[in-house]
Structures
1.
Amino acid sequence: MAKDDKIAGRTVTSSRHQKRSDGASKRRATANNRAGNAKAQSVRPPRRMGRPIQGPKGLPVTWSEIAQLAALYALVLWVAHEYGLLWGLVAAAGAAALRWKAFVSLIRFALWEQWVAIDRRTRDKALLEKGFDWRPVVVLSMVAVILTGNNYFGHRQHFRYFAAKLLAQKADRPLLQGANLRRAGGHRGVQIVYAKRFSARFGKWARILEFGYWVGWRVVGFFLIPLLVVLLLPGERVRDYGLSTKGLREHMWVYLALLSIVLPAVIVVSYTPGFRSHYPFPWSTTTLSRPVAGRLFVAWELMYALQFFSLEFFFRGFVLNALRRSMGAYAIFAMVVPYCMIHFGKPLPETLGAIVAGTVLGTLALGTRSIWSGVFIHVSVAWSMDIAALIQKGAFPKFW
């Protein structure tokens, strides 16, 4: 009997110890869960790649970091102005190294994350499952034809040739007959007839008409023909090719931010002799001893703006939106290739800059689904370059 009581007592004691140990385990488990939850709440969730352009509040850097980057950018421009482009590039590399985290975060958000977001949104998986996409074939074939026609018929020397040919039909000049007349505008006889007859007839407007021919070819080749192609394509809408103004006001801050970056650089470059001798186009090779006529200046700048609108529609509207369904964000880099090629023959820095500008403007066009921000940036920069060049020449037009 006593032995049974001892066994029963041990059993009760062990059950009590088991309950105590179970309770302690539960308490430890609860404490660990609370600590884990608190840790999970304190750690930020991983940021999803591919954030679309929304507003300045979504930038990955603080306003203090933006102010520091702006100050460094101003310093780089000052060095480039005082000591030349090479030292400016060295200063730019040093500035990027000083604030490399903020710089890399901003570039990553502005380009890489936009490409990821664009690729997710624009690539049409259902279309790819159906089979062959015929839009890129039609559009890229038209791009090849249009660029070929523009190269062989759309420049000012072609206008000089056609104008000289028309003016020389009544002139009895053997020098301008047969094979000699078929040569481009560099032929001396063609230049003589053009300079004497055409310039004598139209005076100050002669060079404006030359560039008007160039702008006309751009408008026809880069806007009207692509517009007709879009209208003839079944199921396509013109507004889906970058002409929609929806959300333009929301993305206006992007335009202002890019303009604030480019405009100071234009002012610095305007002090170089090469810049003053190249812009504005109609008065690039002429010696200006007095202000340009206001009417000529306004006519040229309006034609210039129309040319940039056609250019943006062709590359950032027509080409990009035809390729985006099957190529996604890779359409940006496919568009940059012909965009860079139309700058061949221009100074090397401008051609290399076209690669960067084409990538940025293409990303902006697909990110905002509109070409208007690119049009505003292009026109604003072009107008500011012409105005800065005329101010440096002392030939800014007087309107009063």
2.
Amino acid sequence: MVKKKTRDSTLDEPLLEFEERDEGRPGDRDTVHIHHYQAPPTQPLMDLIPFGRFHILMLLMCGLGWMQDNYWGRVIGDISKTVVEEKFKMDGKWDGIPATVQFTGMALGSFFWGWASDFFGRKIAFISTLFIAGIFGMGMAFAPNFIVFLVTLFFVGFGAGGNLAVDGAIFSEFLPSKQRGPMLVLLSTFWSFGSIIASTQDYFLLPYYDTDRDPDRNSGWRLAIAIPATISVFIGVFRLIYIESPMYLLRKNRVTEATNNLNMISRWNGTPQEFDGAILEMYVPSENAKGFNFGAIFADKKLVFATLLCWSFWFTTNVAYTGFNLFLPELLKKKFQLEDREAYLDNLIYNIAGLPASLLGAWLVETILGRKWSMTVSCTLTAACFLVFNYVGGWTSSKIVIVVIISAINFFAQIMYAAYYTYTPEIFPTSVRSSGMGVAALMGKAASIGTPFPIHYLMDYYSIAYVLWIDFGFMAAGALAMALLPIETRGRQLKS
């Protein structure tokens, strides 16, 4: 093999020209294959393969996992009152405990699976999360008592909680740099879609299986759990075809496997490139690539500051959003005296409003606003909508106005989430990308752990206005943290 520098007329950066000569029999003309690759670091690894069918498959694979995260959260929020008060005959002050147990499992799962993905490999974590959530979800659907219900719910959370940490990091590592921003935002639409599916099934199931008629024979809440559990198992089976991330393999100095996987991606996309180890050797990081080093996050002062701000707004915005989103049907019933069916319908419309927001976010993060200002502006508008909603009951009882305002809250919140789901995995080096994302998800779930009890207590024994002021304060704090971020990742290469 002969290696030399050349320049291609269609590119401004130097390329490497690799000439491979297949020697035949004496007297025969040799067959020569010439491949051109732009030299790193000017061209990121995954830019060597154009966007294609494989990336769409990865979007579906990762997106279905993100869908499960929000699906489970919405379902548990909707059935908590039924399970606690009607089925297991407990005091209403414990209505928040199922959500707290679920978010505890999610918090621990997000950190554990993020760490496992960096330490043991992406594949084992990517597949395990869905199987664990599905298997324990089936057990929860048939729980004979409250203790079994809570134990199985914890492990559902532990499995499902790994999806945000692992899937976003994995997907970002497969994407060409130009498509990374929009595709990561499109990934977040699946998260919104999860709440839409959950709200739709709950609208058709829960009001028609009223436990006040016959609590012992009620099956609505069990069906509401069994459906996402079954879906989780099927997604886990689908993920068995996943191949390990070439970026992760190169970080571990497993060049041969990375080469094979890169060639497999190329064939999936129908592109003619054929890579060899000599090309990929140049992409192996110069530092020690064989160890897990969480300290890489703290190697640069600007990255430290960005990381701490990032983790802080994951915490504050999730306090605010969980405080409003989790018990929205109950909040609507108490604030506006709505019937069950009306509240679940409004909740469904509220969740549908988040879907176009995620699509809009896919465009915004690539505009002059970038990731940073897209999430800062949308977070500020979400906080403002909380204030408006707080005073709606005082000056109007119009159903249309109520639906418009709650839809606006979710619309702006989903733009915010789309932007920071894109931003977060992009700021971390490959060696700790899943772990960094895992800690961020941990902060979000930790916020959700502490939210259900006080929010439900304030709703039951004090004023809903207190809940909305808390939501406003934490969301505004998140907007401030976003505005102070020192790093914008639009157009920036992923760090190895």
3.
Amino acid sequence: MSHDGDTRAIERLLLRSHCAMAHARTRRMRGLGIGSAGALALAHLVAEQRLTPVELGRLLRIGAAETATLIELLEQEGFVRRREPVTVGRALLLTPTPLACALLADADPVAPVALEPAAEAALARFVAHAAALTEQAVERALDG
């Protein structure tokens, strides 16, 4: 198989994996009364640990009003905290609560693996590349 064929096959597998995890997370969240936008918002917040409302809206591809409504809901449910900026002129920060982090950790269990430092570094590089490929594939799927 050519390099391009390998890359496309990897992209398809990563996209399938991403979709399966997103589907499982969404089903679990719906059971808690959280819709797909809320589940995706929590996933982004837990991954990034802090985002501005504008950044979150951009990641979710929703407008300011819908973002504000979603933040309000997630805050009322105890999943998000608003952090006032420490300096004047800085944007409000959103952070996930320990409840949100625990919920997402429980929704996406990953078994720990002990690796040698060199293997761990190689795996980290591969996963970073795989994540970039997945993001690109998802963007193409959403835009296409």
